[in-house]
Amino acid sequence: MARGTAQISQRVIQVARLIKSLKPEEQAQLGALVPELLRAPKAEAIGVNVKEAKRFVQEKLAKMADKYPPLSEDDEFLGGLTVKEYFSLPEEERERIWEKAHSMSIDDFEEYEP
Q1: What is the Cα–Cα distance from 69 to 40, expressed in whole angstroms?
Q2: Which residues are within 8 A (CB) of 89 and not within 5 positions of it... i.e. 6 or more apart?
Q3: What is the secondary structure of the chain as a DSSP string?
Q4: What is residue 4's predicted lDDT score, i.e. its pLDDT?
Q5: Three-state DSSP class for 78?
Q6: Residue 53 pLDDT > 90, yes or no?
Q7: What is the pLDDT, as a whole number, of residue 54?
Q8: What's CA 61's distance to the chain center, in Å?
Q9: Helices (H), strands (E): how many in the chain?
Q10: Domain residue extents for the chain
Q11: Looking at residues 51-80, what average pLDDT do you find?
């Protein structure tokens, strides 16, 4: 890897895709819940070559497009519901289903060693 660039983890790519799929109001809510995202340092300040990172993400997304096509509204999504059914629910119910599907315990995290 070239000096001054950083490997972008699959988790970060997945989270980025999820955030991009949020409605503007939901993105604003996320910003309120995680204000650190709004104050993130510029990519160059943490050693990321922005052009190279964008190219990397585009290449990965292109490779994944055939294997993982975008969901249609009739595809199964969460809690046995289709995408359309899930997003038709009241926000509170969607949050409950989302939390149930994505809840993690402290044991789910890997131990960090610098």
Answers
A1: 30
A2: 81, 97
A3: --TT--PPPHHHHHHHHHHHHS-HHHHHHHHHH-GGGTTPPPGGGGT--HHHHHHHHHHHHHHHHHHSPPPPTTSB-STT-BHHHHHHS-HHHHHHHHHHHH---GGGSPPP--
A4: 43
A5: coil
A6: no
A7: 87
A8: 13
A9: 5, 0
A10: 1-70, 71-106
A11: 84
